[in-house]
Write a structure and sequence with these properties.
- By secondary structure, this protein is an alpha/beta fold.
- The chain has 3 domains: about 190 residues, FAD/NAD(P)-binding domain; about 110 residues, no CATH class; about 120 residues, Polyamine Oxidase, Chain A, domain 2 (Alpha-Beta Complex).
- The protein is about 35% helix and about 20% strand.
- It contains 19 helices and 19 strands.
- Strand 15 and strand 16 form a beta hairpin.
- The longest helix is centred in the middle third of the chain and has 26 residues.
- The protein is globular.
- The protein starts with a strand and ends with a helix.
Length: about 525
């Protein structure tokens, strides 16, 4: 294979994983074209004056042992307490269990001590805390029937919720045609209306009745009301202290791995590794056209965004993570009208994060969880309240103490879901920051006078939507699958709301197909599809 070339479009988790696999298992020349100036895609980390922002929040957790081992090979697990563990004298049992992971060549993945206070090349183990803010009150997420929940909702609401779940258990919606049907079947109508409807519609900007149920399959999988209650009961008796938590639903995990400097650190390390092995990584290079002959892609036309120069590059394999809508546009006259129509109808939801540096928070830590400066312990808070556009809050201090330049400050992200070009997206940075601060004050999280600094980050096409042209997506899949050397991977590449581990798996399977000469793409599309769900339907 040494005389063959693979062209990878996009340097996010899928693109970089594909390059890593190709270079480790083949002698195929590998070229990566990334249209932006950095790697990682939505999994990148933004550094603002030494304060780092994780766009969207990325827990490093996977049911795939293959993915977990890859992460640990790149960044070995911590073997000593992190900064915040030391400050508050908190015992982190995982730091005592961690071992240095070795690569295939026998070399360790970093400093042999893996002490986060002595090396940056390390993966932390972090506790997961997330809650829902509704009517200015905090509820555990996933919802649990504890005293706080009963007190906040009231006994009448609790009884109605239980009866609603019993009713849907006896008379389920037989044909789940929408995300609304999906939620109601798993949680009952009362719980759906209370905790799922408004937030989900805030995320997508449309009614849950218009969203396909596949979104639920991708995001919450086997979680349901009874499983959440069973998990809460079991947690009292038994705590899964393993790192993998194989028997725990993803939405219920209690801890996760996390790079010292955020998710982007992982992908910066992978990018460094593939370049050392001979890959060409071309940043600010946009693929503007793919030329084909019969059922094969033969070359890519690439524009250097810095110079404006356009070059043509021949290849034997093309692995794409670019948005499907753009990919179809790159294929030009070879695209049938029906395929073009469906692609033009695909919808994306865009994302804005306002990073705020604060002296302190107004909201108090009333939990039993100890934190530095006693700030609230949440990784993120889902904001259900209708009177604000704010969708979610992240407290970066709790993801990793090394994301914050000054441990005495609170570094947080206010996350907004919007459409590129709409009123929210088009606000100037200053206006957006003022708007976000005003909403934070309104929901009693902080006071304006405690804000020290801010930054605004916009991320287009963050979430491929399960409505619009998605209803007929099979038409696009049939068309792209006919190109035997074209492999669609990742979240936007497949128009699927994949997590980064699933994006990685689509890349791994794609490379396996190249090595084995498999031209069908069914096994790539099968990644992260719930067979049991479809069988039950």
């Amino acid at each position: 294979m040494s005389d063959r070339t693979a062209i990878i479009i996009g340097a996010g988790p899928a693109g970089l994983t594909a390059a890593y696999e190709l270079l480790e298992k083949t002698e195929i020349k590998t070229i990566i074209y990334e249209m932006t100036g950095d790697v990682g895609g939505i999994s990148k980390t933004v550094n603002y004056k030494g304060n780092r922002i994780d766009i969207g929040g990325h827990r490093f957790f996977s049911k795939s042992q293959r993915v977990v081992e890859r992460w640990k090979r790149i960044l070995p697990l911590q073997t000593a307490p992190a900064k915040d563990d030391i400050i508050i004298r908190r015992n982190n049992p995982f730091s005592q269990k961690s071992t240095v992971q070795k690569s295939k060549s026998g070399n360790s993945g970093g400093n042999s001590s893996s002490d986060p206070e002595k090396t940056d090349h390390v993966m932390l183990i972090r506790s997961r805390v997330s809650r829902i803010l509704l009517n200015r009150r905090l509820f555990n997420y996933p919802i649990s029937l504890n005293l706080d929940t009963i007190r906040n909702l009231g006994i009448v609401k609790i009884i109605k919720t239980i009866l609603s779940y019993i009713r849907i258990g006896l008379f389920p919606i037989r044909n789940e045609n929408s995300l609304q049907d999906f939620f109601i079947n798993r949680f009952g109508k009362e719980l759906y209306l209370t905790f799922f409807k408004d937030y989900t519609e805030k995320v997508w900007g449309t009614s849950c009745s218009k969203i396909k149920p596949e979104w639920g399959i991708q995001r919450i999988k086997g979680l349901s009301f009874d499983r959440a209650i069973l998990h809460a009961v079991n947690s009292i008796i038994f705590t899964d202290s393993s790192i993998t938590q194989k028997n725990t639903e993803t939405s219920l995990i209690g801890h996760f791995m996390y790079p010292k400097f955020g998710p982007g650190q992982m992908w910066e390390e992978v990018a460094k590794s593939v370049k050392e092995r001979g890959a060409e990584l071309c940043l600010k290079h946009k693929v503007i056209r793919l030329n084909c002959e019969d059922n094969r892609i033969v070359e890519a036309e690439v524009k250097d965004e810095t110079t404006g120069k356009i070059v043509t590059k021949k290849g034997n394999y093309f692995l794409s993570t670019m948005p499907v809508k753009d990919l179809i546009g790159c294929l030009g006259e070879s695209v049938p009208p029906e395929v073009r129509e469906v692609a033009q109808g695909l919808v994306y939801r865009d994302f804005v994060t306002v990073g705020l540096l604060l002296k302190k928070l107004k909201i108090m830590n009333n939990t039993e969880i100890r934190t530095v400066n006693n700030i609230i312990p949440d990784n993120w808070i889902y904001v259900q309240d209708k009177d604000v556009k704010l969708g979610r809050l992240q407290i970066y201090n709790n993801w990793s103490p090394y994301l914050v330049a000054d441990e005495n400050m609170v570094w947080m992200g206010l996350e907004y879901f919007c459409n590129e070009g709409d009123e929210v997206w088009n606000k100037s940075d200053i206006d957006f920051a003022k708007f976000a601060i005003g909403e934070l004050v309104r929901i009693d999280i902080a006071q304006e006078e405690d804000v020290v600094d801010f930054t605004v980050i916009r991320m287009p096409k963050a979430y491929p939507a399960y409505f619009g042209g998605y209803e007929r997506f099979e038409i696009i899949r049939r068309f792209t699958d006919r190109f035997e050397n074209l492999f669609l991977m990742g979240r936007n590449g497949m128009h699927r709301y994949n997590n980064q581990d699933h994006s990685m798996l689509t890349a791994m399977v794609s490379v396996e197909n190249i090595i084995k000469g498999i031209k069908l793409k069914d096994n790539i599309w099968a990644v992260n599809m719930e067979k049991e769900y479809y069988e039950s339907r």
